[in-house]
Write a structure and sequence with these properties.
DNA polymerase, domain 1; 2 domains; 16% strand
Length: 223
């Protein structure tokens, strides 16, 4: 990994594990669904590796391996209902995130959110926890649009801003995010405070790792 010295025009942030610590509420809703259906529950930290690849994949990872596809879909549907009642109970931006975003907001750079979380929940989170219009684009997982690490949505964000791929930075806490950036011809910056390990970020091609939000600005803005 090398230090990035580039004046990026667009910064695309992952949501869960990057901007928002949402693990408690995800685990709470998931275990409530598992209890309802008579499946074994999981400790909260198990969900660190269950999340990140969309709702249906989360549901598949939660349930026993022999669970049918039909049951997995039913679990995902039930999770949506339960999660609607608790999604913001304990979820909050990580320390330093708002200060970092406010500093970026003063610079000539476009800010966006791209998540594999369902789009309706992604919009709820951004509207609840961040100032209005801070992000020029907010995209969760939508029907007909491939999930990360497919770069389709990231490239659509770059196109929306009229920005070259090489002038975009993908910021996230997982290998999925690092690969999304790489697949889209963008730089990838990994954050160590999220759900996945530094090793995963490195192995997935992170150009840079940071340990606190305050580090981001100094690494991505030319001096």
């Amino acid at each position: 990994m090398t230090t990035i010295h580039h004046r990026f025009k667009t910064i695309i942030f992952d949501l869960d594990g990057t901007l928002i610590d949402s693990l408690n509420d995800i685990a709470k809703a998931a275990n409530a669904v598992l209890a309802e259906l008579g499946f074994p529950l999981h400790p909260k930290n198990s969900y660190l590796n269950f999340v990140g690849d969309g709702l249906l994949t989360l549901a598949a990872r939660m349930v026993p391996e022999e669970t049918s596809g039909t049951q997995v879909k039913a679990v995902a549907a039930r999770f949506r209902t339960v999660y609607k009642d608790c999604w913001s109970d304990n979820s909050r931006p990580y320390p330093g995130i708002l200060t970092m975003l406010e500093a970026l907001d003063q610079l000539p750079v476009n800010l966006a959110v791209l998540s594999n979380k369902p789009d309706d929940f992604t919009q709820l989170f951004v509207n609840r926890f961040f100032p209005a219009k801070m992000f020029g684009q907010v995209m969760g997982n939508r029907p007909g649009v491939p999930k990360k690490p497919d770069p389709t949505a990231a490239l659509a964000i770059a196109n929306f801003f009229g920005c070259e791929n090489a002038d975009c930075l993908m910021v996230g806490d997982s290998g999925v995010d690092m690969k999304t950036g790489k697949n889209g011809g963008m730089s990838s910056l990994g954050v160590s405070w999220g759900f996945r390990s530094r090793q995963e970020l490195i192995e997935s091609g992170a150009d840079l790792l940071i340990d606190h939000p305050s580090e981001l600005i100094s690494h991505v803005i030319d001096h």
